[in-house]
Amino acid sequence: MDYDDTIDEFPNHPSSHTFPAAFAVAERVGNVSGEDFITSVALGVDLNVRLSAAPKGRVGEDYPWFSVPIFGVFSATAAAGKLLGLTVDEMVNAFGIAVDRVSGITESLNSPDSEIRAIRDGFGNREGVLAALMAKFKDCARYSKNSLSEEQIIQLVTKILDLERVKNIKEISEMIS
């Protein structure tokens, strides 16, 4: 499926990572209500749009990274975590794991021979679902909780992506849980 919806103010495709991750987890969990599914997608898309609106300057021109796969990992994590019923602490852990899985360079946009654009969103969906599943199991969750504090995660994301609007990852986690 190719969900390349877009936001006019900044380059982003918020559904390209959120819908597939939600579909995959809903299938795994089973008996997910339409309301729960739509809520998880809405929360993932909302998080994606907020993250994409945060960088200063022009993404894709002023930065060496591409926002779609980077922010997509977080929206996939949010949607998957909501459907998995993660607690606030588990969601914080899932985002901590997701930080480790983020990547995306602008080369796929600039190279006419690159076919990575056709499959890049699949990578982000996989990583977001994996982060949420790892956080659901306590042994894996300890990995992110012991290695990075909430403050360190916020500092890392802020430094890497130059985000000013994301101040409290716990608030995002509470909104999603």
Short synopsis of the structure:
This protein is mainly alpha-helical and 177 residues long. It is 67% helix and 0% strand.
Shape label = globular
Q: CA-to-CA gap between the ends?
A: 27 Å
Average pLDDT, to the nearest integer?
76
Q: Level of helix content? A: 55-70%
What is the fold's blueprint, element by element?
Blueprint: H1 15-29, H2 34-53, H3 67-84, H4 88-101, H5 107-110, H6 120-136, H7 138-147, H8 150-161, H9 169-176
Helix pairs in contact: 1-2, 1-3, 1-6, 2-3, 3-4, 3-6, 4-6, 4-7, 4-8, 4-9
Describe the structure.
- 67% of the residues lie in helices and 0% in strands.
- The protein is an all-alpha fold.
- The chain has a single domain, classed as 2-methylcitrate dehydratase PrpD, CATH 1.10.4100.10.
- It is globular, with a radius of gyration of 15 Å.
- The chain starts with 14 loop residues before the first helix and ends with a helix.
- 42% of the residues are buried.
Notable traits:
177 residues, mainly alpha, 2-methylcitrate dehydratase PrpD, 9 helices, 67% helix
